[in-house]
């Protein structure tokens, strides 16, 4: 597999400034698009923190239903002890949903890594991946970053990723 290449850019000016060409690892940036793996990753991330708080009332949680609706014998009707039974209209739900319900599941590690590398490959192929020399910006003004993104036409949303856990304060 041939290594992929990308431009190394600089954030010192709002104009696009190419510094040099980088060789990118072909196992990370040279994969064929796998829409199924990307879909699994996106679905996993949306379900990761999802909680359902829906709860159906059981017969014990409904008001009323304390007395017997009709006598046990003599009317020819079926015997019932409460009008909040699940058999009745407006009765309780017998095996309804009980809150909280979590939709959390773990996607296998290799699928998560494959999804990340596939997405990086797709972004590089679409020319939406920009590699920057350093995240040091000459000014602390928020307007500078907005002008930078708008001038370079990076799109409506931008994600800055750094190798350190602590980002520079002016970003």
Automatic annotation (TrEMBL):
GO terms for molecular function: structural constituent of ribosome. Keywords: Mitochondrion, Ribonucleoprotein, Ribosomal protein. The keyword Mitochondrion applies. GO terms for biological process: translation. Transmembrane segments: none annotated. GO terms for cellular component: mitochondrial inner membrane; ribonucleoprotein complex; ribosome. It comes from the Eukaryota. It holds the Pfam family Ribosomal_L4. It is found in: Mitochondrion. Residues 60-92 are annotated as: Disordered. The keyword Ribosomal protein applies. Its main location: mitochondrion. Belongs to the universal ribosomal protein uL4 family. This is Large ribosomal subunit protein uL4m. It comes from Cloeon dipterum.
């Amino acid at each position: 597999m041939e290594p992929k290449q990308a431009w190394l850019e600089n954030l010192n000016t709002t104009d696009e400034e190419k510094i040099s060409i980088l060789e990118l690892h072909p196992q990370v940036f040279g994969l064929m698009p796998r829409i199924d793996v990307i879909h699994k990753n996106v679905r996993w991330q949306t379900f990761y923190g999802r909680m359902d708080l829906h709860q159906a009332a059981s017969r014990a949680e409904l008001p009323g239903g304390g007395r017997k609706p009709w006598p046990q014998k003599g009317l020819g009707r079926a015997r019932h002890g409460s009008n909040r039974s699940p058999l009745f209209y407006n009765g309780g739900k017998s095996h309804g949903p009980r809150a909280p319900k979590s939709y959390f599941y773990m996607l296998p590690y290799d699928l998560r890594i494959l999804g990340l590398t596939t997405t990086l490959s797709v972004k590089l192929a679409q020319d939406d991946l920009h590699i920057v020399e350093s995240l040091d910006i000459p000014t602390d003004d928020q307007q500078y970053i907005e002008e930078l993104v708008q001038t370079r036409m990076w799109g409506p949303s931008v994600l800055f990723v750094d190798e350190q856990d602590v980002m520079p304060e002016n970003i």
